[in-house]
Structures are given as C-alpha cells and as structure tokens.
Write a structure and sequence with these properties.
transmembrane, mainly alpha, Growth Hormone, Chain: A, MFS_TsgA-like, cell membrane, transmembrane helix
Length: about 450
C-alpha cells in the first residue's frame, strides 16, 4: 500500500518557513489567554469576594478541559488531519472568549468558569495540533529546540497578559468591576477569528503518521509495531507532564498572592507587574534553552532543570521576604524548557501512534486542574508554605528524565550531545557493504538472475 502524506524532506525551504511561522502564531494565541487567566484568578477574589481556593475553579475548568478533551482532539486529527483540527480549536477558542461578555455583563462567576472550560477545549485542540506539528516538522535531533523556540512566543504573550491586567484590571474603579474584562476578551475572540480565516486560505502541508512511520521503518526502527499501550516512554511522559504542568500552574496561579503575602510592601498592582516580569524571565529562559538544546541532549537538560525547579520551589516555601521572591523568579527561569522537552521526549519515534500520543501528552496539561486547588487549600492559611505542593510535581518530572538518561546509557552509552537517531541509523546502513550470498540456494538464485540478465542483453543486441 502506497504511503500517503508529506515528509519534511519533500518540503521546499519556503513552504517549511511558511508552515512553521503560521503554526507558531498559535502559541502566541493561547499564551495570551493563559497569562490573563492567572491574573483573573486574583482579580475575581476581590470582585466576587471569594477565597483563594474558590478562585482556582478557573484553573480547574481551563485545565480540566485539557484532561477531558485532548484524547478526542488526537483521535480527530488522526482521522482528519492537522489543519481541520486547528479550525476546530480556533472556533472553540473564539466562542469561549465571546461568552465572556455576558458573563461580565451580568457578573456571573459560574459563567466565567463555563467559558473558561470552552476556551480550554479549544486550546487543548490547538496544542495537540501545533506541538505535534512543530515536533515532526524537521529532524528529531532539533525537535526540542524547535518546539522551545515556537513556545517562546507563548511566553511573550503570557507576560503581555499580566501587563495589560496591571494597567486596566487593578487600577481605579477597575479594581472592583468587570468592565474592562469583557472588552479584552472580545479582542481575544477577534484574534481567534482572524487566525481561523488565515488558516482556511493557507496551504498547510499535511505530515501524516504513515509517512513518519515509513521514514522510521526504512532505517530499521520499528518501535511503533508495538501497541500504543506499550509505548512506555509516551505513557510515563503523560505522567511527567501531568505532574509538571500541575506544579507550574500552581506556582503561577498564586504568584500574585505570594508576593503580596511576603510582607515587603508589595500591593496587587505592583505584584501583577512583577508577575509579568516573572513571565519575561520564563520567556528568556525558553530562548536560552533553544540555544542549549541545539547541543545538549534534551533528557539530560531536563534532569538539570528538574533538579533546579525542585530546589527553588522548596526554597520559595521557606525563604522569607525578598529572598523568597528571588527564588520565585529563578523557578520561572528553570521551568522554561520543561513542557516542550517532555512533549518531544514522550512523542519521539511514535510513528503511526504520533497523533494519539500527542493527544495523551497534551492531556497531561490536565494536571493544572488538580494542583492549584490542593495548593490553594494550604495558601488560605499560609501562601508561602503552599509552594511545597509544586515541589512534588518537579520531583516526578525529574525521575522521568533520569529514567530516559539511564535507558539511553544502557542501550548506547551516556549521551551528552543531542543526536538524530534516524540519521545515524541511515548512515550506518549506507556504510555497510552489500551482503554477499551465503547459502547454496542464495548463490543459485543470484547465478540464475545473472544468466537471465545476460540472455536479455544478447536478445537486445
């Protein structure tokens, strides 16, 4: 059966750049929505008079949507392709944003929670499509670096959200009203509609699972022959992603409260601005990671960054005053590469299981629904001590990375530099001399073929 679809090798340079740039624009879209979410968490505490624990219903809705919807998004794209999946994601994203208007107009917190769930369904679909597409849009050697670069623009949007909030949500009469929230999300809906139109008219090359599997099988890599439930790197990658995202979301959701409660004279408007600086630190760390991941093995990098995240989250739990805030900034820096590296490690060489595996790893974002309530229940009594909860997530992620490093060392020796296993296998096959016939039967077949070719040559003469 002929393999359908496109491989990266078949793309021209111009088509590759166009596809890469357009899909990367999606990361900015949900980065902006995520940045606003963390600030709204604190804003709603004041407007609706709710506790920190109650305010995390937003995170529960947003990230719970990932847990519920991502597997369906992966199956949808396995059948209909990346482009149609992107259309579905952008449509849900715009609908959810539009319904923020009546929720703000009638001041219904439950409405905000429902709209956030719809936005989460849309963004989970986009994440399955965009993360997977960027990961396979080139050699596996630089997959982690490519995804970190694209997700860097998510970071840019993430700090733009809190900066807007510090200017409009927490100043003057806006500190106790929802007037500006409805306008901001109307603009967000407009952005989603514009992107949907752009993708409708673009020629986005479809990189199919069959083409990816064929590329692997040509060099003797047949790991995707095993059923999906035996793709252990992907299964445990989902566990690691669940724990990491839960930790990251918990850290961000209560960052404004953390800085205010450090008793160093920081009020909410300044805390919101400092939070945007934390997001800038995160973004800078992501682009630094792009450079490092061009040379260092991604699994080894994840071990180093995982240890750093564990250390600084624990330090933030016990360090008082400005020292704790400094640890919080360091924590944001070392979080930077974790999500894209876990994604690329978990979906590496899945072949025919690529889109299903992508859906599972993105489903791990659902961890953001469970960690914030657990952390907030402690934060209602002691915000600083609550940062022990994210520590557990970073430890689980680090264990996953250590397991991959050990597995690689057992199979091929310790690896410091990043490598392209498919390219290495291809070079090994090309370097091998042609096999000579070993058995009498094989020699007889070769002799018969030679005689046949000789007779055909004489007949042509």
């Amino acid at each position: 059966m002929a393999v359908t679809g496109t491989t990266v090798a078949q793309l021209t340079g111009a088509r590759w750049v166009y596809a890469f740039a357009l899909v990367t624009s999606l990361f900015f879209t949900w980065g902006f929505a995520y940045g606003l979410l963390d600030v709204l968490n604190s804003h709603f505490q004041q407007v609706f008079g709710i506790s920190k624990l109650q305010s995390t219903l937003l995170q529960l809705a947003y990230f719970g949507a990932y847990f519920v919807w991502s597997p369906f998004a992966g199956m949808f794209m396995s059948k209909y392709g990346y482009k149609k999946g992107i259309h579905v994601g952008l449509t849900l994203y715009s609908l959810g944003a539009i319904f923020f208007w009546p929720s703000a107009k009638f001041e219904k917190y439950g409405g905000f929670v429902g709209c956030t769930f719809i936005i989460g369904c849309g963004l989970s679909t986009l994440e399955v499509a965009a993360n997977s597409y960027i990961a396979v849009l080139g050699t596996e050697k630089y997959a982690a670096a490519r995804l970190n670069f694209s997700q860097g623009f998510q970071g840019v949007a993430s700090f733009a959200g809190p900066m807007i909030a510090s200017r409009w949500f927490f100043t003057g009469k806006n500190a106790t009203t929802l007037d500006t929230v409805q306008w901001v999300y109307l603009a967000v809906a407009g952005l989603g509609i514009v992107l949907n139109i752009l993708f409708y008219f673009c020629d986005l090359p479809e990189i199919t699972q069959d083409a990816l599997a064929e590329e692997m099988h040509e060099v003797g890599l047949t790991t995707d022959d095993e059923p999906f439930w035996k793709q252990y790197r992907c299964i445990f990658g989902w566990v690691a992603q669940t724990c990491y995202v839960g930790a990251q979301v918990g850290v961000a959701a209560l960052a404004v409260n953390y800085m205010v409660d450090q008793n160093v004279g920081i009020q909410k408007p300044l805390a919101s601005q400092l939070f945007s600086y934390c997001q800038i630190t995160f973004t800078v760390g992501r682009f630094v990671g792009v450079v490092l991941l061009n040379f260092v093995d991604p699994a080894l990098m994840l071990v180093i960054y995982g240890v750093a995240c564990s250390t600084f989250s624990l330090a933030a739990s016990f360090a008082p005053g400005r020292a704790g805030i400094g640890c919080l900034f360091a924590l944001f820096f070392f979080e930077s590469i974790c999500y894209p590296v876990i994604f690329t490690l978990g979906t590496k060489q899945l072949g025919k299981h690529t889109k299903r595996g992508s859906g599972l790893i993105v489903m791990g974002v659902g961890g953001g629904a469970w960690y914030p309530p657990a952390q907030a229940s402690i934060a209602d009594r002691n915000t600083r001590l609550s940062y022990v909860v994210p520590f557990t997530g970073y430890v689980a992620m680090t264990i996953y990375a250590v397991g991959i490093v050990v597995d690689q060392a057992i199979k091929g020796g310790f690896r410091f530099r990043t490598v392209d296993e498919i390219a290495e296998k291809r070079h090994e096959l090309e370097a091998q001399p042609p096999a000579s016939p070993s058995s009498p039967a094989e020699k007889s077949d070769v002799e018969s073929e030679d005689k046949k070719e000789t007779i055909e040559y004489i007949d042509r003469i």
